[in-house]
Automatic annotation (TrEMBL):
GO terms for molecular function: quinone binding; vitamin-K-epoxide reductase (warfarin-sensitive) activity. The chain crosses the membrane at residues 70-89, 96-114, 120-140. Its EC number is 1.17.4.4. Keywords: Disulfide bond, Endoplasmic reticulum, Membrane, Oxidoreductase, Quinone, Redox-active center, Signal, Transmembrane, Transmembrane helix. InterPro entries: VKOR, VKOR_sf, VKORC1/VKORC1L1. It is found in: Endoplasmic reticulum membrane. This is vitamin-K-epoxide reductase (warfarin-sensitive). The keyword Transmembrane helix applies. Residues 2-141 form the Vitamin K epoxide reductase domain. It is a multi-pass membrane protein.
Length: 141
């Protein structure tokens, strides 16, 4: 229980930070986040890309302005809250939901890691850390 709580709190914090960076960049294009260490190590560039919303999949299907095209950080907030809250509830259905959402997050992490490495050719420290958290939650579940 303590491990799940720590992982979920870390993931929640990183997701909220990602949302903060996205909003700060929208207000001030010159904003530089703490996770921007160089031209090829920039979370701001990743969050501002089309891959930073709806996993990069919603925009081509439903359009940039679709209500479903939410920031990946918002998806993370929901995921980590769900994992944290449901982790305290015993039962088979709860366990199945935890495992199912963890599998989905691991698949999404693999997808986004591929986009990061091969498409954007960037190293987003916030992103990579959340991928590791997601895999750890999958193993825990």
């Amino acid at each position: 229980m303590a491990a799940r709580t720590a992982l979920c709190l870390a993931g929640l914090g990183l997701s909220l930070y990602a949302l903060h960076v996205e909003h700060a960049t929208a207000r001030d294009p010159a904003y530089r986040a703490a996770c921007d260490l160089g031209p090829a190590i920039s979370c701001t560039r990743v969050f501002a890309s089309r891959w930073g919303r709806g996993l990069g999949l919603v925009e081509p299907l439903l359009g940039r302005d679709s209500v479903a095209n939410v920031p990946n950080g918002a998806i993370g907030v929901v995921f980590y809250l769900l994992q944290g809250l449901l982790g305290a509830v015993p039962g088979r259905v709860t366990s199945a939901v935890l495992l199912g959402t963890s599998v989905a997050s691991a698949v999404a992490s693999l997808w986004l890691a591929g986009v990061l490495a091969f498409g954007l050719q960037d190293l987003c420290l916030v992103c990579v850390t959340t991928y590791l958290l997601n895999v750890t939650l999958l193993l825990l579940n």
